[in-house]
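Lecture notes, part 5. Sequence design as translation. It can be helpful to think of inverse folding as translation between two languages: the language of shapes and the language of residues. The source text, in structure tokens, appears below.
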């Protein structure tokens, strides 16, 4: 009734202000480079472990870190448990019903049997006389024993420096990689190996946690297919460029002769050349990735459709670049990733097994939309090169694409996609906050600031410490 007497414009103004107060609270949380945010409850409380073993009883501790959330003597507390996939065992906590819990020494210790590989939600409420308020919504995840010892490492191994057609010098690219939350990276300059192999020298004696590995984008003569080499120990370009070219062509011709038949529509030379490049990458300890087949260049997709089909079936490649970088804002640049995802889904339905990766193909860390937003998550015991390569070969990786202002798209095996989505919401934001700080200091070191080394030393090991705290290790 009262509202009816007010001019309508005032009603709308009041509603707008109320709505923007809520929005302001959300929007003032700092945004990370990939668009994620640390949920405030993850700042206020420590919940350990956050990744626990499936199908066993685990002790979970919720500890307030600040005075505004501390457990009070004059209040009662209740907890409501929900399993996201609705997988419950008879020993699981009672779901959907608030249950009294008792904190001691300003911490809540609970023993839970958590069933299945899934996310779990714990809603903690504080009851003061007849007033009830939610103190926090806590999310944790349980994994089976094969996944539990592995840690998620974010990386990108397709990007360019000014040693080919990128904007920035190589050490700048490395610092920027850490700043956007990557654990490992490789430069992949066009027809260049040295810039990636020499990059660690720029941080010699500097305490950094970013792992820097060799990479190279290979373009063998007259072969349109772009191939990334990752983690190899000698240049591929030296085998096909300048004086080496006649030898390369002779070897490819030999391969062509040995190949009796290629599928209809496939240029045999292109197919043989891909076999030759990928063999050379493997001989040099690297992994070979089939890159951006649906990148539009000169009005056409980069790889001819019959050739792409033959290459996917060939077994030459260790991985498929499912999430490519969109070098331009043209609609067809975005379409390429949609087509790659659809092509992969169809090929997989027909029995193809090939691991998928996400990369930025950045040509400028400050200007490329996909830098830090498209990446690969490897589930691996460590971020050492051999472990990452094994993880990729086994398909223990997911391809992530986060378009500005949107929620992430994740591709790969279903159980890893589900797990990655949890990590992107609940763990990576905190991981990334630590990386931002380290990346800025790496850039500062590259700019010649003398105090950066000491400040980096103080940061060293902080991501590992976060993972050690959050993952159940049985101790
Ligand atoms: Zn390329
Ligand atoms: Zn590239």
């Amino acid at each position: 009734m009262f509202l009816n007497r007010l001019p309508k414009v005032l009603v709308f103004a009041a509603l707008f202000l109320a709505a923007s107060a809520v929005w302001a609270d959300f929007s003032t949380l700092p945004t990370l480079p990939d668009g994620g945010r640390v949920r405030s409850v993850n700042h206020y409380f420590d919940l350990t472990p956050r990744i626990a073993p499936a199908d066993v009883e685990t002790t979970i501790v919720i500890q307030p870190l600040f005075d505004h959330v501390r457990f009070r003597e004059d209040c009662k507390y209740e907890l409501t448990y929900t399993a996201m996939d609705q997988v419950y065992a008879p020993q699981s906590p009672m779901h959907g019903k608030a249950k009294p819990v008792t904190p001691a020494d300003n911490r809540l210790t609970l023993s839970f049997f958590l069933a299945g590989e899934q996310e779990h939600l714990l809603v903690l409420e504080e009851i003061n006389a007849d007033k009830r308020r939610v103190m926090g919504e806590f999310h944790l995840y349980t994994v089976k024993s094969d996944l539990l010892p592995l840690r998620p490492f974010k990386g990108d191994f397709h990007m360019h420096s000014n040693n080919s057609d990128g904007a920035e010098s190589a050490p700048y690219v490395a610092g920027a990689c850490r700043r956007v939350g990557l654990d490992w990276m490789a430069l992949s300059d066009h027809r260049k190996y040295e810039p990636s192999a020499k990059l660690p020298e720029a941080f010699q004696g500097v305490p950094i946690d970013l792992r820097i590995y060799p990479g190279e984008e290979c373009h063998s003569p007259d072969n349109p297919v772009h191939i990334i080499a990752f983690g190899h120990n000698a240049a591929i370009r030296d085998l096909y460029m300048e004086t080496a070219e006649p030898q390369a062509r002779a070897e490819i011709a030999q391969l062509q002769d040995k190949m009796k038949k290629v599928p209809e529509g496939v240029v045999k030379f292109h197919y043989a050349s891909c076999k030759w490049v990928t063999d050379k990458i493997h001989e040099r300890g690297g992994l070979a990735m089939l890159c951006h087949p649906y990148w539009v260049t000169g009005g056409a997709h980069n790889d001819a459709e019959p050739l792409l089909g033959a290459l996917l079936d060939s077994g030459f490649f260790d991985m498929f670049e499912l999430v490519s970088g969109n070098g331009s804002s043209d609609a067809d640049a975005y379409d390429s990733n949609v087509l790659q995802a659809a092509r992969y889904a169809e090929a997989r339905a027909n029995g193809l097994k090939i691991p998928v990766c996400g990369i930025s193909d950045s040509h400028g860390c400050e200007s490329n939309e996909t830098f830090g937003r498209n990446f690969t998550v490897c589930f691996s015991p460590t971020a050492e090169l051999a472990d990452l390569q094994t993880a990729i070969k086994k398909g223990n990786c997911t391809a992530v694409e986060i378009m500005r202002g949107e929620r992430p798209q994740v591709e790969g095996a279903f159980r890893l996609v589900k797990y990655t989505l949890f990590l992107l919401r609940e763990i990576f934001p905190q991981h990334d906050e630590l990386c931002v700080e380290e990346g800025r200091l790496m850039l500062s070191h590259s700019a010649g600031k003398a105090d950066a080394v000491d400040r980096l030393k103080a940061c060293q090991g902080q991501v590992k410490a976060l993972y050690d705290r959050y993952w159940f290790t049985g101790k």
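The translated text above is only one of many valid answers, since several sequences can fold into similar shapes. The two ends are 63 Å apart (CA to CA).
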